[in-house]
Design a protein that fits this description.
The protein has 599 residues and is an alpha+beta fold. 29% of the residues lie in helices and 22% in strands. The structure holds 3-[(carboxymethyl)sulfanyl]pyridine-2-carboxylic acid (O2Y) and manganese (II) ion.
Length: 599
């Protein structure tokens, strides 16, 4: 198999990895549908993939209960100097980390097949695309990579005999001795899991987990943690952002890129169905945006992925009818429940819960059981091409010109429905100070307060010192000048009395997006407040919506006392970056404090 590889650098890397991991077989992926079907059939035969009777070509997998999500505590940015990784990344020196991991990799693929997956993030041939080669002993990860990236011969052709590639080594960390029976989801114990990034040599080493972002290395590892320092060096942006196109009734298009922490409805917003008559939305991406200033001076964005890896629980015709439609066939489900008629089910799906199901741990489940039937982080993987709202231009190698950036988070109080930055520097401050409430489980686990700062929704994904990342954002704005996108901050999650949501959300978020588009065109005014520009009375299009007047007032209220109480936390957060913190952020903080005190 290795003889099929014409690229000498790739061949010797594959040989080196095979020598260390010692798989029984090596298989070079061609990316065909036949290959995908064959691997799935093998996993069905082995009893680890369950074909779904109700959805054609779709399968359910159940992970080990210890391997259900990204593992931030086990994720490393390994640079020679600790300072380059910055204070909010886990760090270990490259020699030490590699020493530890080499011991784990030694013989780790015994009894298994090593799949070699050539993949491209971004349309092959796009000036923004990057080629990676993932080596993995997981057929599940291989099939997911088929859906999430462009895989196979066409990538090797583009690589040629001397092209650049990013080596991505992945092992589930569970060698099989002769005669040993395999488990359904083999993986290593938590303390042996490592998701490691070596940005100085553009290298990824992942060990011990088969789940999501830990195993599909094109996604968070390559497209964010490695791409972000590359983007800094090369003068572009690799961001944790959805991309959506809005078209107004006159046919004018607006492109929006939005950064939200996990669990803030990013996929739903990427697939929004506007409730305002005449407005249309098209999906370009739901998770990652790579953006470059093009010769026209504007920032153009591509979605480097080809699929959606979304959270299943909560997905319904109410929250995301587009995703419901998208999942009818050719999908992979992980940690959902299985119904008696051979379909998947998860909490908050449309209709009544099934009278009986098998839960994500493989146990009988009936309504009223203490534990949910699907794991809260249960996932679907689906090809982008099946998304009914997908834009026909989603693969344009030139990308789409971004008009608007949105930052946001989940906050029950303080932060209003929407505000606009006064200028680029203020917008960078809004992104840098972004925050979100975290789940009860994380509060207990981490001992932290319930609000977590998540600058630009990049806290888990920035592959270098976040202080330098802020500086990069300032410099990108300097380069774009007047052509820079406008910046807004939203909070769909503000609550009123009795813990009730004040804003209906979902399709009605289009009303807020419309206000932003109208601001870009100078069609609506805005009032100045200490925190930024906000809708004037009647500025938001609320026609046909029955949100009480008092709720709207609350949604757009700015309480200077609550904001002033928030500032010490922002300041302390910023100051951890020390000499890496741009003064321009300190200037913004001083300005905000002054405006609040004078309000
Ligand atoms: O739990 C995981 O491994 C997946 S995390 C994830 C997956 C898709 C899109 N975004 C995220 C995220 O955590 O931001
Ligand atoms: Mn994400």
């Amino acid at each position: 198999m290795i003889t099929q590889i014409k690229h000498e650098g790739l061949k010797s890397w594959v040989e080196e990895v095979a020598g260390m991991c010692r798989p029984d077989e090596i298989y070079l992926c061609d990316g065909t549908r036949e290959e995908y079907d064959r691997l799935m059939a093998q996993m069905v035969d082995a009893g680890v993939a369950i074909p779904l009777k109700e959805r054609s070509h779709s399968f359910l997998f159940r992970s080990d209960p210890s391997d259900v999500a990204r593992v931030e505590d086990r994720t490393y940015v390994s640079t020679t100097s600790r300072d380059d990784a910055g204070p909010i990344n886990n760090w270990m020196a490259p020699d030490e980390l590699k020493g530890t991991m080499k011991k784990l990799y030694d013989g780790c693929m015994k009894g298994r097949t090593m799949y070699v997956i050539p993949f491209s993030m971004g349309p092959i041939g796009s000036p923004l695309a990057k080629i990676g080669i993932q080596v993995t002993d997981s057929a599940y990860a291989t099939c997911n990579m088929h859906l999430m990236t462009r895989v196979g011969d066409k990538v090797l052709d583009a690589l040629g005999t001397d092209g650049e590639f990013i080596p991505c080594l992945h092992s589930i960390g569970a060698p099989l001795e002769q005669g040993q029976e395999d488990s359904d989801w083999p993986c290593a114990p938590m303390e042996e899991k490592y998701i490691s990034h070596f940005p100085e040599e553009n290298l990824i080493w992942s060990y011990g987990s088969g789940y999501g972002g830990n195993a599909l290395l094109g996604k968070k590892c390559l497209s964010l943690r490695l791409a972000s320092p590359i983007a800094k060096r090369e003068g572009w942006l690799a961001e944790h952002m959805l991309i959506v196109r809005l078209t107004n009734p006159e046919g004018r298009q607006y492109h929006i890129a939005g950064a939200f922490p996990s669990a803030c409805g990013k996929t739903n917003l990427a697939m929004i169905q506007p409730t305002i008559p005449g407005w249309k939305a098209e999906t370009i991406g739901d998770d990652i945006a790579w953006m470059q200033i093009r010769p026209n001076g504007r920032l153009h964005a591509i979605n480097p992925e080809t699929g959606f890896f979304g959270v299943a629980p909560g997905t319904s015709n109410g929250s995301n009818p587009v995703a419901v439609d998208m999942l009818k066939e050719n999908a992979i489900f992980t940690n959902c429940a299985l119904t008696d008629n051979g379909d998947v089910w998860w909490e908050e799906m449309d209709g009544d819960p099934p009278a009986h199901a098998i839960d994500w741990k493989g146990r009988d489940w009936t309504p009223g059981t203490d534990e949910p039937a699907a794991h809260p982080n249960a996932r679907f993987t689906a090809p982008a091409e099946q998304c009914p709202s997908l834009s026909p231009d989603w693969e344009d190698p030139e990308g789409v010109p971004i008009d608007i950036f949105i930052f946001g988070g989940r906050r029950a109080t303080t932060i209003p429905l929407v505000h606009e930055a006064y200028n680029w520097d203020h917008g960078v401050f809004l992104g840098a100070s972004a925050s979100s409430e975290i789940t009860a489980a994380i509060i207990v686990e981490s001992g932290l307060g319930h609000v977590r700062r998540d600058p630009f929704a990049m806290k888990p994904f920035c592959g270098y010192n976040m202080g330098d990342y802020f500086q990069h954002w300032f410099e990108m704005g300097d380069s774009m000048g007047e052509k820079a996108p406008r910046i807004f901050y939203v909070n769909w999650f503000r609550k009123g009395d009795n813990d009730r949501w004040l804003w209906p959300g979902f399709g009605d978020n289009s009303r807020v997006l419309k206000w932003m588009c109208d601001r870009v065109d100078g069609k609506v005014g805005a009032k100045e407040t200490p925190i930024g520009l906000m809708p004037e009375d009647g500025g938001l299009d609320l026609s046909g919506l029955s949100v009480p007047k008092e709720d709207m007032e609350e949604l757009l209220a700015v309480d200077p006392k609550m904001w002033l109480a928030e500032l010490p936390d922002i300041e302390a957060y910023f100051e951890q970056f020390g000499k890496h913190l741009p003064d321009r952020l300190r200037v913004q903080l001083v300005g905000l404090r002054e405006r609040l005190n004078n309000y």
